[in-house]
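FORM 12-B: Structure-to-Sequence Request
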């Protein structure tokens, strides 16, 4: 792999790198039977992996409207990644849970994340990957870095 030229715009390179990561992730999980996975599925499944929540809580976690969250949930439920169950503390409310298929998708994505990083370590060394992680962390805001949606938790 050749080093990118210094005259490439850093923002463009960051964007292209992310696009390639997502392309490989989607291709990998599709090959494992998750060709119908959507762009928001990972964020939702990672959020629900910590604890079940209702649509309002999910909307707040994802920083979207309740209507937007409901549309995503309806779609994910239709595709078999989520289910609604009665809230044991409030019979009027429903809690969202990943289905077995949803957990399998999350597991496949987590494995991809690990393999992707391992591939970078093999190609560039652990120190270079640590520097990359530090640099990207410095670009992200402290608030974003603290956001539980972006933590590896259990990968």
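FORM 12-B RESPONSE
SEQUENCE OUT:
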């Amino acid at each position: 792999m050749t080093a990118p030229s210094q005259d490439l715009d850093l923002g463009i390179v960051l964007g292209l790198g992310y696009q390639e990561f997502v392309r490989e992730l989607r291709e990998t999980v599709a090959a494992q039977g998750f060709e119908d996975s959507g762009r928001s599925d990972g964020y939702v499944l990672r959020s629900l992996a910590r604890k079940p929540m209702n649509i309002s809580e999910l909307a707040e976690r994802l920083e979207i409207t309740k209507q937007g969250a409901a549309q995503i949930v309806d779609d994910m439920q239709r595709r078999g990644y989520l289910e609604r169950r009665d809230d044991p503390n409030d019979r009027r409310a429903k809690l969202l849970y990943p289905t077995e298929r949803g957990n399998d998708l999350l597991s496949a994505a987590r494995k991809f994340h690990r393999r992707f990083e391992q591939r970078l370590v093999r190609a560039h060394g652990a120190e270079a990957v640590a520097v990359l992680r530090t640099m990207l962390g410095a670009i992200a805001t402290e608030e974003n870095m603290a956001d539980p949606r972006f933590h590896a938790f259990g990968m």
